[in-house]
Amino acid sequence: MELRNEFAGVRVELDHEANSARLKIIDLETGLTTFLDPFALQALTRLSPESL
User: Fold this and answer.
1) Cα–Cα distance, 52 to 44 (Å, whole number)
2) pLDDT reported for residue 52
3) Amino acid 36: pLDDT
């Protein structure tokens, strides 16, 4: 899935290469990639919009 707005664009994929499923997020401008496992995603839900 690709998400874009006037400031950024990313591709989000489900990755199964590690021990468990995780999200693979790719910056469409730079090609930089990061992975977020369920623990990291859960931590994001606990942050306020101001913290992000």
Assistant:
1) 8
2) 85
3) 97
Q: Which residues pair with 14 in a beta bridge?
A: 23
- Strand arrangement of the beta sheet that strand 2-4 belongs to: 2-4, 9-15, 22-27, 33-36
DSSP at 2: E
Phi/psi of residue 3, nearest 5 degrees: -125, 130
Q: How many other C-beta atoms are found inside a 10 Å radius of the C-beta of residue 35?
A: 13
Q: pLDDT under 50 in the chain at which residues?
A: none
Q: Which two tokens stand for residue 44?
A: 């994001």
| Rounded CA separation 44/48 (Å) | 9
Q: 26 to each of 38, 39, 44, 52, how far by Cα in Å?
A: 17, 19, 18, 18
Torsions phi, psi for 13 (to 5 deg) = -130, 155
